[in-house]
Amino acid sequence: MTSGPYNYSYIFKYIIIGDMGVGKSCLLHQFTDKKFMADCPHTIGVEFGTRIIEVAGQKIKLQIWDTAGQERFRAVTRSYYRGAAGALMVYDITRRSTYNHLSSWLTDTRNLTNPSTVIFLIGNKSDLDAQRDVTYEEAKQFADENGLMFVEASAKTGQNVEEAFLETAKKIYQSIQDGRLDLNAAESGVQHKPASPGRPLAAPPSSRDNCAC
Amino acid sequence: MSLQKSVKSSGDRSEQADTTSICSSVTTQPDRHGFFGGAQYSPEPKRTVSPSTILKREQKWLRMLDNWEAFMSKNYKKVRERCRKGIPASVRPKAWLYLCGGQLLLEKHPNEYEELLQAPGDPKCMEDIRKDLHRQFPYHEMFIREEGLGQQELFSVLKAYSVLNPKVGYFQAQAPVAAFLLMHMPAVQAFWCLVSISDKYLSGYYNPGLEVLQRDGDILHALLRRTAPAVHRHLVKHKVEPVLYATEWFLCALTRTLPWDSLLRVWDCFLCEGVKVLFKAALVVLAGALGPAKVRKRACGLCETLEVLRHPPENILGEEYLVYHMQRLSLTEEDFEFEHQRQTARRRAMANRRSIETSL
């Protein structure tokens, strides 16, 4: 967690979605703890993780919501799409069914987030190339057609995991710089923390502003 | 939100060199509950009750189990009192089977389990179950071997349920419950206990839509307002909704949440008294974790609060603390009933409003 107040300037909210067993929690764990959790229990409901990263010299806290994949959980996980600045949509390259369901996940994401939400497609389990069921090319084409960013990654080896999370953040940050993402919008998924350590605020900070959240 | 999981991740952090966190410590000797490692592993011996007391309790329970019908119909309070004290480990499996009505179901449908297993089963359900088999308590001696007997039985129990009740089919939250039952009893008994728990104790929890779960989250929240108003205010202020922290508590009946000894004690009460035991345990954990003003002040945000609920102080999860404080909550049967009615009506009104709005 954070070591003190104001040690980052933005909070970006992410969600991770996709079918059950594609490795959503493992990707999150690999990103936050740099480890592959072989015995990762399946998520019931919603879990979360955080990590502070740096983009263009700005410290950004990623607040990542990891959702349960089974269809039935969508009744409770849908409400967490709202206000997400980034959505990582995951499928398993060794199971075509998880790829075939992407359009349904995408529809949900488009309907429930705002137009500026960055959607990143991840083909997980790239370490299992011998069992591949979905080619890189067709997934790339799907991503291009739908305007998504895309990589194949492996939560097991860590390959491309950092990239996926960081590229998403860069794109969000770019949207802020371009003015495409309105920081004042209620559900932009981004919070700006203008103060930095040691710099006094113009107004005395309330207890709410004092905390590292 | 799992409290067990958190114990493990804190252990993982200490081994820097290892990039695959198989487990923080795997031993060759299982602990007294059958765990070789993982979050549930608790090697220290337990000595809270003297052997002579245990012996006396065992005899009382055996007498009670021999005259079960009579006790349940005429002396339920005695049964409840004995459950609250903790069922001796040696009679626990049989006691649970009787308490939840699994025994009655088994007698009524003697061959049904085997018959259900003959059915092909819904292919999607079977696929989903298979995906989860290796993810249930993988450090327990029963489930440690990939495709070992434990995992095979887990498949059978979950499959049989999905065939018996196609409306629910297979829901992921059932897997830890079924695995937990299998640690205590043969598959056919575990199956009928699962049927009883899914359809009676947690009735509606596993249905598509998860309406009942969401309503119960609201009930928990309303009860918390009575038992710990300051904690309730804190959760409201930081928009910490019950569905965020209590989904796993309720859906898995705390099997993925509490330390093992506490879990067994809470289940002794749960199978005797029903779902309100889960509410009580949740209320005690909430009040224990966020009760101190100091803690609330530090946890001044949504994520920070969830973090506290994921790592409550160990002492409040201890079996004695938990069971004692669950009984001391000043909540009556009527309070539960009142909130149940109120939140059900509230959700119905909300649904009506929504349907009117969409029809306009």
From TrEMBL, chain A:
<dbReference type="InterPro" id="IPR005225">
    <property type="entry name" value="Small_GTP-bd"/>
</dbReference>
<dbReference type="GO" id="GO:0090382">
    <property type="term" value="P:phagosome maturation"/>
</dbReference>
<keyword id="KW-0342">GTP-binding</keyword>
<dbReference type="GO" id="GO:0031901">
    <property type="term" value="C:early endosome membrane"/>
</dbReference>
<keyword id="KW-0813">Transport</keyword>
<dbReference type="InterPro" id="IPR050209">
    <property type="entry name" value="Rab_GTPases_membrane_traffic"/>
</dbReference>
<keyword id="KW-0967">Endosome</keyword>
<dbReference type="GO" id="GO:0005829">
    <property type="term" value="C:cytosol"/>
</dbReference>
<dbReference type="GO" id="GO:0042742">
    <property type="term" value="P:defense response to bacterium"/>
</dbReference>
<comment type="similarity">
    <text>Belongs to the small GTPase superfamily. Rab family.</text>
</comment>
<dbReference type="GO" id="GO:0006895">
    <property type="term" value="P:Golgi to endosome transport"/>
</dbReference>
<dbReference type="InterPro" id="IPR030702">
    <property type="entry name" value="Rab14"/>
</dbReference>
<dbReference type="InterPro" id="IPR027417">
    <property type="entry name" value="P-loop_NTPase"/>
</dbReference>
<keyword id="KW-0488">Methylation</keyword>
<dbReference type="GO" id="GO:0032456">
    <property type="term" value="P:endocytic recycling"/>
</dbReference>
<keyword id="KW-0333">Golgi apparatus</keyword>
<keyword id="KW-0968">Cytoplasmic vesicle</keyword>
<feature type="region of interest" description="Disordered">
    <location>
        <begin position="189"/>
        <end position="213"/>
    </location>
</feature>
<dbReference type="GO" id="GO:0015031">
    <property type="term" value="P:protein transport"/>
</dbReference>
<dbReference type="InterPro" id="IPR001806">
    <property type="entry name" value="Small_GTPase"/>
</dbReference>
<keyword id="KW-0653">Protein transport</keyword>
<dbReference type="GO" id="GO:0005802">
    <property type="term" value="C:trans-Golgi network"/>
</dbReference>
Automatic annotation (TrEMBL), chain B:
<dbReference type="GO" id="GO:0031267">
    <property type="term" value="F:small GTPase binding"/>
</dbReference>
<feature type="region of interest" description="Disordered">
    <location>
        <begin position="1"/>
        <end position="50"/>
    </location>
</feature>
<dbReference type="InterPro" id="IPR035969">
    <property type="entry name" value="Rab-GAP_TBC_sf"/>
</dbReference>
<feature type="compositionally biased region" description="Polar residues">
    <location>
        <begin position="17"/>
        <end position="29"/>
    </location>
</feature>
<protein>
    <recommendedName>
        <fullName>Rab-GAP TBC domain-containing protein</fullName>
    </recommendedName>
</protein>
<keyword id="KW-0343">GTPase activation</keyword>
<feature type="domain" description="Rab-GAP TBC">
    <location>
        <begin position="86"/>
        <end position="274"/>
    </location>
</feature>
<dbReference type="InterPro" id="IPR050302">
    <property type="entry name" value="Rab_GAP_TBC_domain"/>
</dbReference>
<dbReference type="GO" id="GO:0005096">
    <property type="term" value="F:GTPase activator activity"/>
</dbReference>
<dbReference type="Pfam" id="PF00566">
    <property type="entry name" value="RabGAP-TBC"/>
</dbReference>
<dbReference type="InterPro" id="IPR000195">
    <property type="entry name" value="Rab-GAP-TBC_dom"/>
</dbReference>
<dbReference type="GO" id="GO:0005886">
    <property type="term" value="C:plasma membrane"/>
</dbReference>
